[in-house]
Description:
Elements: E1 4-8, H1 14-23, E2 28-32, H2 38-43, E3 48-52, E4 70-73, H3 77-83, E5 87-102, E6 115-128, E7 134-138, E8 146-149, E9 154-157, H4 169-180, H5 189-204, E10 209-212, H6 217-230, E11 234-240, H7 248-256, E12 262-267, H8 269-276, H9 282-304, E13 309-311, H10 316-320, E14 347-349, H11 357-366, H12 371-374, H13 394-413, E15 422-432, E16 438-447, E17 455-456, H14 461-474, E18 478-483
Parallel strand pairs: 1-2, 1-3, 3-4, 4-9, 10-11, 10-13, 11-12, 13-14, 16-18
Antiparallel strand pairs: 5-6, 5-7, 7-8, 8-9, 15-16, 16-17
Amino acid sequence: MQKVLILNYGGQYDQLIARRIRECHVFCEVISAESTDLDALRSLNPIGIILTGRPSRPIDRRIFDAGVPVLGVGSCCAPMAHALGGQIRQVDPVHGRTLTKLSEQADLFVGFPPVTISWMDYDQEITSLPDGFFATASTSDSPIVAFGCTQRHIYGTQFHPEAFHTEGGTQILKRFLKEICGAEEQWQMDNVISHSISEIRRRVGQRKVLLALSGGVDSSVAAALLSRAVGSQLTCIFVDHGMLRKDEGDQVEHYFSRMDLNFIRVNAQERFLRRLEGVWDPDEKRRVVGEEFVRVFEEEAKKIGHLDFLAQGTIYPDILEDGQGYNDVVRSSRDMGSLPAHIGFQELIEPLRLLFKDEVRQLGRTMGLPEFLVGRQPFPGPGLALRIVGPITREKITLLRQADHIFASELERAHMHEHIGQYFAVLTDTRLGRSGQEYCLALRAVNTDDFATAKWTRLPYELLDRISATIVQEVPGISRIVYDITSKPPATIEWQ
């Protein structure tokens, strides 16, 4: 399969670029510029290279002599020009939307209007271009914010075509990929499924696989894919820690117990409640839930006997962020623990490790998984424990589960849920009422494209009024509702 490489010099845009390229149905991978030498780069046989980030040392100019089209974006543009023989200078940082004039002669911008809005992010300015290159874009503050050489297929833009704020940015990427690199639309979910199944069967053979099934999107899609590949050689252990959303545990059991795999549900609610008694700190909650999860999982795995492979729903951002995803049960993470090595698995299988979250959902839908699984809202590994401020009790879990269900149901009734990135309820530790035994509930809904930033959702007042009245009426113990109107940044999406 054709491949585009994103050479990351330490910036924040690498995943966004990768997502935009995948949306063009072209396969790409992100690799670190600091830890990849030129020979390793060539061995990957890319059809194109995109440079991003802020280089801490000069860019190796041999990259441009490999005969592969190259596009440098954002803060990589000026260092790229310097590596090719141009001159640059330090300037005050430029960051934000800028009116940009595009050259009609630039093959990268064919078909674009002469003036557009671009998202700039740089602190070095190009003062003169290398021999054979010409300026392809300018602003009122800088005569060179993009440059290129048609003969060598090398281009640089100080604006980010992958950014949402750049008008027509995806079309610029498409032109680079398809017209300049010659990329074909090979990255299709049907192809991904068939290739993944073949690869899993090749690796597993007649041996056995164990998967920790959380019921979230990633582990559910991984279970379905593995089931198609190896059937009853797969065992899924679903540890119900008692802090899932309304009916989720039963939904997971109802669906997966009918699939061609061995499904084990462990009802461990009491164990987790005992371990969490009196715990206030959210990081301590993560640690406690993670440790107990590992203990339960280990106990059940020993009952099964010999198993050859451990499978997990690791996705591409988990790999790029060095194990920060909450579905990871082997590597350490914020929300779950790490599985003891002495269980004795021979190998690890991560069938989704090259997919972004939206691609995982798409793959699940292509395989026919129900929407209640692939369309699930993001949910932390410790579940409702992280959406309860203060210590965990059975009463609090019940109150929050009921209120959260009402919030979600009302958004669905109003057909608002499809247009919101994430929404949930938080049970605060604020006590109200004459007895001081009633709680204040916070509602949160945000719109986001990449979860790196988010804006609070402007829900209609009439809808908020209905949600508030329904929760207060139907959930005794909650007597006040507040709505979180803080964006990210400065806030995080979750409360804890």
